[in-house]
# Entry
Amino acid sequence: MNPWYRFEYKIVEALTLGVWHCRPEGRENVPLTGGVLAISNHVSFADPTTVGWAMGRETQFLARSSLFKPPVMDKLLPLCNAHPVNRDAADVKGIRLILSMLKAGELVLMFPEGTRSPDGGLREAETGAAMIACKAQVPILPCRIFGAFAAYPRTRKFPGYAPMRVRIGEPFRPPEGRRFTKEQYEELARRMTAEIGKLE
# Structure
């Protein structure tokens, strides 16, 4: 495990257990080896680190490229396994990076909704994560975080207190093949939403 990631993991663990009393459920569903695309709902700024901690396995994160602009963050975020992606355009370089990490056997966390929910509800998945899953041909691991919206919604500058819980479902496979249609991506995106929704 990346030593900086291990250090960050211990800090997150102290916060999630000590402050938010977070409980991971279904950790036994996480494949211990091989490329895995973890998908989760997105309601809070705390989601990436909290869901990543719940995995119990080193996780690679994606973050919007603007977060890397401050001088300190452009050095700190990569040490914590965060990788910049451009959400406002077709980021070919970002897609290649995600695929290379999955094919190298990494666990990559994505939020198919694309951005944080404004009201804490589950929104329809976009097709980006579905396209990645089809091209990488790796297991898809559905997750759902509870309590994070109450603790740290997008409208709040600083986090508050609310007990959190992360539920991890059973992995499923994307359709097999080498070429896929837009309709297949859309169908898989709907299934991603449904699988996350089942974790209610």
Observations:
- The first strand starts at residue 23 and ends at 25.
- The two ends are 32 Å apart (CA to CA).
- The CA atoms of residues 23 and 165 lie 5 Å apart.
- The chain has a mean pLDDT of 90.
